[in-house]
Write a structure and sequence with these properties.
- With 161 residues, the chain is of the alpha+beta class.
- It has one domain.
- 34% of the residues lie in helices and 16% in strands.
- The protein has seven helices and four strands.
- A two-stranded antiparallel ribbon has the order 1-4. A two-stranded antiparallel ribbon has the order 2-3.
- A hairpin with an 8-residue loop joins strand 2 (45-51) and strand 3.
- It is flat.
- The termini are far apart.
- InterPro entries: HNH_nuc (IPR003615).
- GO terms for molecular function: endonuclease activity.
- It comes from Klebsiella variicola.
Length: 161
């Protein structure tokens, strides 16, 4: 089933304002354009495997067919404003799945990036074990933005249970 996927400009602006024009996950500022409306609980899009265009390096590619497995999740209550980097990384993960993936990034960098290991060897990078806290978990609309944003960015672990 193809869901209604467009939100109005007014709904989109309301969504951007939800967490003070900040990405719900990393807290970076969201300009008027260039950010994504993320499905908190993913709709999980369906796709077809089709022959790749002539001259491609691969024989087949996955192409969305417009259908989703959870059309009921395409609802304003299930949307968060997100920077493109967070939304693309989150992909179809749940909030907790996304948190786990982020938590694994330092060990992945150590295992697969010679650049990271070199920087670490020369003391330029230090891995710090701490919980992954999202901006939407810390943000309080009743308080002034700047002090809580500064504190959030410096002390994310203070927001964990």
């Amino acid at each position: 089933e193809k869901p209604k996927t467009k939100i109005t400009k007014a709904q989109r602006e309301e969504l951007r304002l939800k967490f003070a024009c900040r990405c719900a996950y990393c807290g970076c500022e969201l300009k008027e354009k260039g950010w994504h409306a993320d499905h908190v609980e993913p709709v999980r899009r369906d796709f077809d495997i089709v022959r790749a265009p002539q001259g491609s390096r691969v024989s087949h590619v996955a192409r969305s067919n417009g259908r989703v497995f959870h059309p009921d999740r395409h609802d304003l209550d299930n949307l968060f404003p997100a920077c493109s980097a967070c939304n693309l990384f989150k992909a179809t993960y749940s909030i907790e799945g996304f948190r786990e993936q982020i938590a694994h990034q330092p060990e992945r960098a150590q295992a697969y990036s010679v650049n990271f290991r070199t920087a670490q060897r020369f003391g330029l990078v230090t891995v710090i074990e701490k919980p992954v806290v999202f901006w939407f978990e810390a943000y309080d609309a009743s308080k002034e933005l700047e002090p809580q944003l500064s504190y959030f960015l410096a002390h994310r672990e203070a927001y964990q249970d």
